[in-house]
């Protein structure tokens, strides 16, 4: 079985060493805090506000299921913002903030994360910078969040995510198996005695935790082929450190290995998909190599321009890869209307937080870090950011299937062995009956209860 537990633990140690009832108010609020609003409200309106706040708190204290009522308040707050009733939204957000916590149960923690995002969106509406549209402020905040990708806390959160959830491991394990099977199929069809060398083009390699299991599987072959990885990323230091770790690991296996960093622009700031397409011309293609292109939890960021993304996929197709692996969240967080995006995200992350509740102890620090830092960042981007700078643009598999087919790709069925291997991963490391695997359109879907969460597919 392709596993990465020991590598991930070793890399994590090394890395750490380096290192919130809609009101019937027609007057628009001034760009001040709630105290400023109340100062300008009519006396009758002040009494109405107070009465509604007392009613909300009374219902909350008398509710037999406070989490359900808080979730209703969360939706009401989002709808108030959507309808520009910022006064009502501010009051509700304050109540949500005082009745949720990152230390409670999964529902309370979820409400806490979404309330923080709504509160930020509300502040950006109520206190815009002079002569700056609120949409641009949201975008600027989103960009600043993404500039923190090099921050130690965010990197540590990613490593914790890889350890305590099956999401990344499932995606990477299944992609690796698809790559190995495509390599074997290609060598078999060409009836080669000496196997082709292998070239992996990995979009956004980050810390490289996907590749040691594949390297181990390749090194065990007789004779082992040469493995070359072209790794893209937006931080040259991370790329180099990843290359050094993988090179040392390859040396310990006796595997011939080469690593090429390919620095890409930050597409969410000043660059476009065109820049990525241009950078692909720097990828060296050799005639005696099997090319595998790995797109795990990456391409959704490029949905800012669907036509250009399809052009990029056609460019990849023109490179004649033997296999392209694709993994994405099974959700539609790319809806242009805020309230639709909010409701979709609330349902999706409810399943995520419930899965963490079921598989980790109540006092897990790793879970809190993952929920508040990694998923908190995603929720903030989906809820707060608007315009071109929003990055978390997840779409469901049907959208990706259509785009891949338009670009000329056809789906490769993932094997029964890959399915049994993914099931074994869940059984050994995440022994909860809540996780489920389904095969649809020759692709794998990992879900929690009845909510699909991630899809992995293979293309040629």
From TrEMBL:
Q: What is this protein called?
A: Uncharacterized protein
């Amino acid at each position: 079985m392709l596993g990465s537990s020991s590598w991930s633990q070793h890399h994590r140690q090394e890395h750490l060493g380096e290192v919130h009832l809609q009101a019937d108010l027609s007057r628009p609020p001034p760009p001040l805090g709630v105290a400023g609003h109340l100062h300008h409200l009519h006396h009758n309106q002040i009494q109405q506000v107070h009465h509604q706040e007392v009613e909300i708190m009374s219902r909350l204290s008398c509710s037999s299921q406070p989490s359900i009522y808080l979730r209703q308040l969360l939706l009401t707050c989002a709808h108030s913002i959507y309808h520009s009733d910022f006064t009502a939204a501010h009051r509700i957000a304050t109540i949500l903030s005082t009745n949720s916590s990152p230390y409670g149960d999964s529902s309370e923690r979820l409400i806490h994360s979404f309330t923080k995002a709504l509160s930020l969106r509300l502040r950006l509406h109520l206190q815009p910078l002079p002569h700056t549209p609120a949409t641009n402020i949201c975008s600027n905040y989103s960009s600043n969040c993404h500039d923190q990708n090099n921050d130690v806390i965010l990197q540590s959160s990613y490593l914790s995510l890889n350890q305590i959830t099956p999401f990344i491991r499932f995606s990477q394990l299944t992609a690796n198996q698809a790559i190995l099977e495509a390599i074997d199929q290609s060598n078999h069809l060409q009836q080669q005695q000496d196997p082709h060398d292998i070239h992996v083009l990995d979009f956004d390699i980050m810390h490289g935790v996907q590749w040691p299991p594949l390297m181990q599987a390749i090194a065990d072959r007789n004779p082992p082929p040469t493995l070359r990885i072209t790794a893209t990323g937006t931080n040259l230091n991370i790329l180099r450190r990843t290359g050094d770790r993988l090179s040392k690991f390859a040396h310990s296996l006796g595997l011939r290995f080469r690593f090429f960093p390919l620095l890409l622009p930050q597409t969410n700031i000043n660059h476009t998909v065109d820049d990525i397409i241009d950078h692909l011309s720097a990828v060296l293609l050799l005639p005696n190599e099997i090319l595998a292109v790995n797109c795990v939890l990456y391409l959704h960021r490029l949905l800012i321009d669907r036509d250009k993304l399809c052009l990029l996929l056609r460019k990849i197709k023109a490179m004649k890869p033997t296999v392209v692996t694709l993994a994405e969240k099974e959700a539609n967080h790319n809806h242009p209307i805020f309230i639709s995006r909010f409701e979709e995200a609330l349902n999706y992350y409810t399943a995520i937080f419930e899965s963490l509740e079921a598989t980790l102890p109540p006092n897990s620090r790793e879970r809190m870090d993952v929920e508040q830092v990694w998923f908190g960042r995603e929720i903030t981007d989906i809820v707060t950011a608007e315009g071109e700078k929003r990055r978390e643009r997840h779409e469901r598999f049907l959208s990706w299937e259509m785009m891949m087919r338009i670009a000329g790709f056809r789906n490769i069925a993932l094997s029964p062995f890959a399915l049994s291997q993914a099931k074994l991963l869940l059984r050994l490391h995440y022994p909860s009956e809540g996780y489920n695997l389904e095969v649809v359109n020759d692709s794998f879907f990992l879900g929690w209860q009845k909510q699909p969460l991630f899809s992995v597919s293979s293309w040629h």
